[in-house]
Amino acid sequence: MTTITDGTDTLTRDALTVLQPGFTGTSAPDWLLRRLGEGLASVGLFGRNIASAAQLSALTARLRAERDDVLVAVDEEGGDVTRLEVRTGSSFPGNHALGAVDDVELTRGVARELGRRLAACGINLNWAPSADVNSNPANPVIGVRSFGADTGLVARHTAAYVDGLQSAGVAACTKHFPGHGDTAVDSHHALPRIDVERAVLRSRELAPFRAAIAAGTRAVMSAHILVPALDPDRPATLSHRVLTDLLRGELRYDGLIVTDGMEMQAIAGTYGIERGSVLAIAAGADAICVGGGLADDETVRRLRDALVTAVRAGELPEERLADAAERVRRLARWTAAARAAGTLGEADGEVGLRAARRAVRLTGADGFTPLTEPPYVAAFTPVANIAVGAETPWGVAAELVRLLPGTETGSFTGADAGWEALAAAGPRRIVAVVRDEHRHPWMAAALDLLLRARPDTVVVEMGIPQAPPRGALHIATHGAARVCGRAAAEVIAGV
């Protein structure tokens, strides 16, 4: 597509305003700064953009030097999905751990502290929380990112999270509307489908979003899922019935609607990102998230020109694009006012660890004697989904090394994982660490072998504790954040 505008007219500025692009590197490239001057109003940050708190603060300050009210967004759920601490693991447990505790004041406190840290680094929009009801235990992409499988629990904790995050001046973006919990397909790879009656959707999937809206969530993120009971033809992100009739009309939501990443295969592999972006804005979305995989000026230009061309061709009403751009600016004004108010509140650096400790559930603890000698930690490692990423460390080994110096560890996967772990452990006591054992037959087989040979093995489940607990001691952490690993290690070492 050829460039059709010089970047100065109102239509082009609106087209740029509705984009939320990403970039590579830890400093703002020239093209991004130039686009901010031309009308771009949002920037999305990912783990690749963050090296330290000081670097991040300098980066966001540079963006604001170009545009004072820029929305700087990040996907910081805490728990398994962290960008602030992508290389170390999160200081906060994720939603499933908070749901296991079921203390809404604790959830509110965790979200407030997370928001305080984001705001201190110059981030004012968080693509969180996940309001998905994880009703399908085999869900490959939500899992511990959900507060749980109970609709009421998810609803009350979603509301508390929104309230806590926004009390720190960071806009919440509740996701993934109308609910990604009952899927068996990861929308990063293909288009999931939810085949349930509309009545089920209303009572189960939509309840947490109603709670988030009542709590004042400033943004809602759409899901790339096909829900035939709502729209048999188009996924939610591209559906006027879902975004306008249901979310705007029936649920009376008036904030910003953000798409999930448009380069995800559920959209890119079916409609393409340019056509998908036009359809999303036409359907009622206000902001196009892109940049997790496509993070360059060419992508911004392609999407800008696709929107401008669609308006000029009569495929996208100019008023709809202008309305979307105004909603982006409205959120920018809210975040700017929150930043100007300037009260981040008192830090609570231990709230995440307290929450992780409270989330631990033990089976077999009555007969367990804490370890005094360094064990061998066998981590049975599944392939991480794209939302979590493979670069974030997980497990209990690092914390056990601190508590029991001399602890050794190895990572195992596949059909021979059990045999390999046994051979590597030698005579040491084994701590087997799993993640969603119920979803991985090879992992269950490895545990079967390990427990037959070494019944004193301690098992730590850091995903959804769906499989029957077993081992000399079974520890369910309800998440794989760094603080979850620390909480488990403290139990093992008797600290």
Question: How would you characterize this protein structure?
Answer:
- The chain has 17 helices and 14 strands.
- By secondary structure, it is an alpha/beta fold.
- The strands form three sheets. Strands 2-3-4-5-6-7 form a six-stranded parallel sheet. A six-stranded mixed sheet has the order 9-14-13-12-10-11, sandwiched between helices.
- Helix 6 runs parallel beside helix 7 (198-214) and helix 14 (397-403) packs across helix 17.
- The radius of gyration is 23 Å and the shape is globular.
- The model is unreliable at 1-7 (pLDDT under 50).
Radius of gyration over all CA atoms, rounded: 23 Å
Structural class based on helices, strands and sheet pairing: alpha/beta
Ends: how far apart? 62 Å
Q: What is the spatial order of strands in the main beta sheet?
A: 2-3-4-5-6-7
Number of strands: 14
Strand content: 5-15%
